[in-house]
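Sample intake — LOC107391303-like protein
Collected from: Nothobranchius furzeri
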Amino acid sequence: MSKDDHSHPNVMSKVQDAGDMKEERSVVSEKSETKTRKSFRERRLTPKMQELKDQELTQKEKRFKATYEKWRSNVRDIRTRLKQVCSESDMYNMMDEAEKLESELKEQYDRIRLQISPSQEIRRKIDACSAVTADLLQLMRVRLTEDEDEFDTVAERSRLRMLLDNEYARSIYGSTASRVTAPSCHNSKHLSESPSISAMRTEAAAQLAAKRAEVDMEAAIEAQRQQLRKMENQRDIDVIQARLNVYTEEEERDGTRSPPFSKVSDAHPFAHHIPDQERQVVQNETSLVKSLQESLALTRLPTPEPSVFSGDPLKFTEWSMSFKALIERRCSDPADRLFYLQKYIAGEAKSSLEGSFYRKDEEAYQQAWDRLNARYGHSFVVQRAFREKLNGWPKIGGKEYLKLREFSDFLQTCSNAMPHIKGLQALNDCEENQKILVKLPDWVTCRWNRYVTEQLDRGNDYPSFHEFASFVSKESRIACNPVSSLHALRHSAEAPPREMKRSKANTFATNVKPSIPSSSTTKSDPGQIKLGDAEKPKKWNTPTQNYNSDQCICCSENHSIHKCKRLMDMPVEDKKKCILENKLCFACLRKGHNSKDCRNRSTCSICKKSHPTPLHEDRSTAGESSIQGAVEESTSSLSCCVSGGEGGSTSMIVPVWISTLSAPDTETLVYALLDTQSSHTFVDQEVCEKLKAAMEPVKLKLSTMMGRDSVVKSQRVCKLKVRGFSSNVSINLPPAYTRDFIPLDRAHIPTCQTANKWKHLVSMAQEIPPLMDCGVGLLNGYDCSRALIPRRVITGGDYEPYAIETDLGWSIVGSAPQRVQAKDVTGFCHRVSVREMPPITPFAVIKALESDFADTKSGDRSISQEDICFLQILKERIQQNKEGHLEMPLPFKARPHLPDNKRLALVRLKHLKRKLDRDPKFKIDYVRFMEGVFKDGDAEKVENQAELEKVWYILHQGVYHPRKPGKIRVVFDCSARYEGTSLNDHLLTGPDLTNSLTAVLCRFRKYPIAVMCDVEKMFHRFHVSEDDRDYLRFLWWENGDTNSEPREYRMKVHLFGASSSPGCANYGMKHLASQCEKEYPSAASFIQKHFYVDDGLISVKSVGEAIELVKDAQAVCAKGKLHLHKFLSNSREVLDSVEVAARATEVKNVDLNHNDLPVQRVLGIRWNIENDSFSFKVSLEEKLATRRGIL
């Protein structure tokens, strides 16, 4: 062995070990030659990754410590606050905050545990967090079950001190725990260093001192409680004595009475033994007397009670607060609370709690409230209810000031609820504000736009919803000012509203009443019930009045003006004069509004059209009627001997309270007719308007005794409910329909006096109310069978009336038997008119067609104020632009504020794209036409954004002329409506400046040489002013590529589909002619008098005059960038003088020296140019047999 070997024994050992390992591996390899070899590699982090992991772990531990300190601070703060009186909401907030921080700390702990096993310190902290949080939550739950009014500070502090007894709590509460558990804190270090018997003795002494202090504290608390009970007993004695004094004072009203406090002092002899406190006792007794008087005054007020909650989330908060204040705090028994809860909920809310009312324990009561809070009180549910009501609010008209005020009140409600409902913060967004602005009148929107612009110009943000609500509130107050507003001035000028709805004629019954002879005086039977008798109620608080029907304004008799024979027999002019003098509506013959604002139009009983029956005008002449046969009228009369019975006829008519499901507290008292023969329920329209019920227009087919399948206009009303006059049982009505009146004779209404007339009905007489001062507002059909179900029936003899009780109350059905006397009786039946229609003659057909399609006579042309305004606008603003075109504005009635209809334009463009993709030929023609529009400069691309309310997107579509199938024309639809308006609604059409068709044709046939021409694209030759072009925007694809995104363009010219374009084009033509009248007098006269729209027709005496006229007319039109083309003439020399491009298509390829001239249409008439004669050719087409198709 060498020296080196001895000097390095480790090396030798390593070599030997290596040899051994090789031998072992060889042995193992020999034994496992048949096994599959596997390799394993341990994954090790790189230094960089390890460093990142360590940094991540450090960050997690830091976050854990920060969250722990935050939780610890919160717990200590909660313990401090619990030493004082805390409200229920404060304790719930503290519990939520503690649970939230505990959850965050556990989440941080789980993140650390996923990476590495937490340290002992971290595990100790998380365990302490869980235990301390659980102790605090348990303590606060106990506090919630106790009455805070009896809060005991000493006892509460003792209970909080018990939290420190646990070892895990001492590190949390810090110095507090050390002060309680170790009063001798300054000796703690010494005691810890010498764990001897003396230390243990010191600790035991400290515990003994703490226990003695606790016993002393409990004794002091008990003494204070005894003192408190003594004071309470003394207070009860003083209150009883004070009550006795008040009662004594009430009895001694006639004499001089001593002050109340003197009697109180006499009643307490022990007070004389404390002379130093006598004055204080007297003052206390005086205050007690005053408090007792106030409490007695409060007992005389009506008992407050919560409203009935039916499932509206917007009313849940108000209802729950009232229920807890008036019921829950005064009632401690869970069974009683559940009873009242069941009493004060209804509808959907009551159905959701059906299972909770089978139990009567506290848990069931809490479960019921938890379900109500989750379904109706959750902030998300409430904010959704606010948003849905806001989005569903109808559009407010410009003169609906009261509806504006109602909407303003709701906006204020949303604004007040916004701080408490976070979801309503979205209303501050400008997009949401825009959705609300659509519902406001235009004048309010303009003022708000001005206010917003001022705020933005100052550098401020878009105004908040609170500012918007305050703004609308101010505007509504201005609009509804009771003195100086337009609303007040308009109502002061109107006639006062009628106090009571007029009676309507009953068209279902025939009344038979005794007539009194004029020569004798007849005494009425005392037992007979008369129409209009005043009835004095006995036990009912509702006053009654005599029922008087409305007087007819025309003849002052007691009948409806709709049945006035005098008005029917008046000539038409006298009828109009009578209606105007009495300020009646022509649509319903009522006061207070005009026919254009009438919402309750009458239906004629003769022709079933929309006008009152007295204004019906028969078109057949008197002569024809006399030839075919006179009108036969018969009035049936009934004569017999009948005596007055013991009672009148009555039916199932009951007074009810009607309301809507959305506003159950707003009720209206009406009479309801329970009709078992009506298939549907009907309600008076005025009642629906008073209740502000939602109505939907519909048309009905009514079949009655008066006719079958009569089509009438009505409105559908849903979500109504009724209850009896003295009943709390509500019945939900099915969808009902409105009528302008419900026929009923008030003499048929049963009352308590009616029941007293019959012995078998006396027992229920007090259950029927007297005659009410209300109208008939409801006809209940058998589609609501619940209201018709008999609950009790009282019958008498075979011919006596019977009483029937339903859920809506008692009614009496039947009439009294009548005794025959020697007295004549006349029965008044409804008037029966039998009219034989005359046979239809050709003359009658022509007259009927002329009445519907009558042309305005040339001599009857009149000009209106709007026409004058149209001419004034064009006269002041017509000009010639840089391109040489005449430029005119869009003649608006008033500058409009239009809604943004871009969404509609995109939808229509999408439909157009599908049509273009389906029809390649249609696409090629459409794209070629649009390219021509851009090439001619009739449209331009929109480069900048205009004001939102000054933009309108025109819809366009392609149409082929039936006689020109290969030529397409793209029509811009200016009549397309969006949100109830269109561009044509705001444009003035102007006066009729078109020359008479007959006059143009007659002058065309006057002289031998005839010339005809046409203005190429006449409307597109007149441009629109720059300020108005944004009203003519449209969407199109650039270069006609339908696969690209659509771009915005706008038209520069007056459109073919605009209602103002014909007037503007005719005015422009005449304006251009007047400008050139001195230079080209004949051409100016030709343009002004011989053009029918864009077709010019004239005849002259000679060829030379015709050639010169053609050149002058082209020169005049060229000055305004107008192009005359399609020239035709019966003179070949005149045609030869016109260049070929300007000739009509039919004669461009005609050899004027040899070929005959073709036949051409002139204003719809065939003109044989070669013979210079008009001809007609009738080609029958298959069309529908309508008036338009026949004409």
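Post-analysis note: The CA atoms of residues 551 and 557 lie 5 Å apart.
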